[in-house]
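Before relying on records like the one below, remember that each one covers exactly one chain. Contacts with other chains, cofactors or solvent are not represented anywhere in the record.
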Amino acid sequence: MNFKVFSTALFASIILSCGNMNEIMKSVEDVLNDVGTTNSNPTNLEIGKGLKEALVKGTTMGVSNLSQSGGYLNNPLFKIPFPKDAAKIESTLRKVGLGGEVDKVVTSLNRAAEDAVTEAKPLFVNAIKQMTFADVKNILFGADTAATAYLKSKTGAQLKSSFQPKIQASLDKVNATKYWTNVVSQYNKIPLVTKMNPDLNSFVTDMAIKGLFVKIAQEEMSIRENPVERTTDLLKKVFNYAKTQGGN
């Protein structure tokens, strides 16, 4: 039997064994689907790249939102109040009709934070770039705010040292230092009060960083929980995989 005759006989036997051409095509399709499913899980490289892409997206969005005018001031969750250890100053001045001066201080504190928060972006990006694959896996399959906790551990001290000079410059730029000095001076002139002058820079720095991480946590949870936030095929692939593996 020559090759042509053999091939024809072989093809005929396949058709007979499958019944008809539709069954043949269905069998081929099933095999291809099985192969696609097997290869649909992301590689380690894709997992690392996808998570880092998500974190850069989330931190960039968080910083951008807070740095806008009103980013801190207009949101009760992030708004920096009058310093707690100076609550007595606030209540006393409001009682004597100087609430407007207190409000100027609060507004200027938040403006300073909005101005300074942009310092966080390069620190976050650098920390994300330095992640090991072990870090990536722990975050991907960890708690809803595992990435936020990682960033806080890696950048907390740097943020404080980076924020403080920027906060001070911002406080001066938006007249917070002037308003604060006026308020404290007027309070300290009131008879029989204990003289006070809390560290404004340290307070605003701590509150700005606290609000920042609350915002980053929101962005992280949104990407984990809301498929719409996964704006690239890689993000969809990585976070869908994490979900099937029992991750958050």
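The longest helix spans residues 146-173.
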